[in-house]
Amino acid sequence: MDLKKLHKKDYLITFLKGILLGLVSMGIPGLSASTIAIILGMYVLVVEAISNIFKSKYNLFFFLSYLFGYMVGSAMAAFSVTILFENFPLVTTFVILGMIFGSMPDLIIKLKGGLKKASCWIILILLTCGLVLLNFSFKAGADVEFPTDPNIGYLIRMFFIGIITSTTFIIPGIDFAIVFLSLGIYYSFMNMLTSLLSFGKPGYFETFLPNIKIMGVYILGYFIGVFIFSKLVKKFIYRYKDQTNYASFAFVLAAPIIVIKNCVIDNNAFFTTTGQVIGAFIGGTVALILILYLGMRTRNKKLQKNKNAINESNDIFETNSNEFEEH
Q: How many domains does the chain have?
C-alpha cells in the first residue's frame, strides 16, 4: 500500500488497528503485537513509516494515527488488568499463564532450524537464566509501584528498558507484556498508566510528576529504539534468524517463573477462595485452548497460502509448457 494514497477512512482504520495492537501488547502476555500487526497487514507499513518518518509527511501522518490508537489501547489494557488483578488475582494469574503456555508451541516449531547450533542454545540458556536471576535480584514487592522520587539511575534504567522493549514491535514473537513480566515491572507499569489516567483521584498530583518523569524517559528510549531497530534489526533477523527465535523463546520460557514470583509469592494482597480456584482452572484452561487454537489457525492459513502459491506456480508452468508444445 502506498502511504501517499491513503484516505481519511484509512487513517481511521489504522487508528482502530492501533487500539487493538495496544490492547494486545499491553494486556495479554503471550500475544505478540508484531505478530498481530502482520496478521492485520500493518507490520511492513509501520516499520517503513518509522524508518522513513523524516522523509515524508505521509509517513508521519500514518504513524501518528497508529500511535494514538496504540495509546488508547494501552490505556484500556492498564485499567482492565489492574482491576482484574486486584479483585481476582488467582484467576488473572492462571489466565496469563494459560496464554503464555498456549503461545509456546508456535515458538517451539521455529526452534527446529537451530537445534544443532551451539550459539542458539547458549543464547537460550544465558538469556533465560539472566532474566530469572535479574528478577529474583529485586526485593519482594520492590516494583509493585514505581518510586515516588526516581533518581537519575532509575530514570536511566527506564530509558534502556524503553530501548529493549522497542524490539517487541520489530521482532515478531517477542511480546511486550512478556518482556515486561521478565523484567519484573509489568504490574508497576500498568499501575502507573492507571494512576496517570485517574484524573481527580485523591493524591493524583503527588504522583503525577514522578510518573511523568518515568513515562517520559521510557517513551524517549522506546521511540529511539524503534527508529534505530527499524533500520537495523530487520537485517539481523534475516542473517541470524535461528538465534533470534531462540532469544524470543527465552523470554517466553522465563515468563511463567516471573509471573508466579511476582503475582503469587511476592504479592502481599494475594488471596484465594473456592470460587477463585474454580475460576482459575476454567479461565486458565480456556485461555490455553484459545491461544492454541489461534496459533493453529494461523499456521493452517500460512500452509494454505503456501499451497495455493505452489498450485498457481504449477498452473503457470503447465500453461507455458502447453504453449511451447503447440509452437
A: 1
